[in-house]
Write a structure and sequence with these properties.
By secondary structure, the chain is α+β, with helices and mostly antiparallel strands. It contains three helices and nine strands.
């Protein structure tokens, strides 16, 4: 898996990606604005569930997926925080700063589930942090957008 800059996305595709996650990120920002920083991430997840329902954004909270190896399903259960609109992984954090481990977790979820878009949202800082990624299944690359 390779991480690339958004230079490989044309302007139209970039606009489509941003538009697709706009309302999801808006819900995250609204929750952060109303609840404030430094709560437990589960509080933010519960509030997001309410916000998604109010805005009629399709989602599955604690989306379960199974990993296979050589065609054999592995028994360990994997859960991502949210699968929104059927094609956006949303991972919620409440930590000092987003780092390599949090990005890698999101990227692995995207890759293992072949989900093309991912949002990593950190609620803890006074000013929220949000990163958006696109996974190209054909080239096996992840692009920040």
């Amino acid at each position: 898996m390779e991480i690339v800059e958004n230079s490989n996305l044309n302007t139209e595709r970039l606009a489509q990606l941003k538009s697709h996650v706009y309302d999801i990120i808006g819900c995250c920002q609204e929750v952060h604005r109303e609840l404030g920083p430094w709560l437990n991430e589960y509080v933010y997840q519960e509030a997001l569930k309410v916000s998604f329902e109010e805005k009629q954004i399709a989602f599955v909270k604690e989306y379960y997926f199974q990993v296979s190896y050589h065609g054999h399903p592995l028994s360990h259960k994997h859960y991502m925080d949210f699968l929104c609109k059927g094609n956006v992984v949303l991972e919620c954090k409440a930590i000092t700063s987003i780092g390599v481990e949090q990005r890698q977790q999101l990227w692995n979820y995207m890759r293992l589930t072949n989900t093309p878009m991912g949002v990593l949202f950190n609620f803890a800082p006074v000013r929220d942090q949000c990163e958006k990624y696109y996974y190209d299944q054909n080239t096996k690359t992840i692009t920040a957008f």
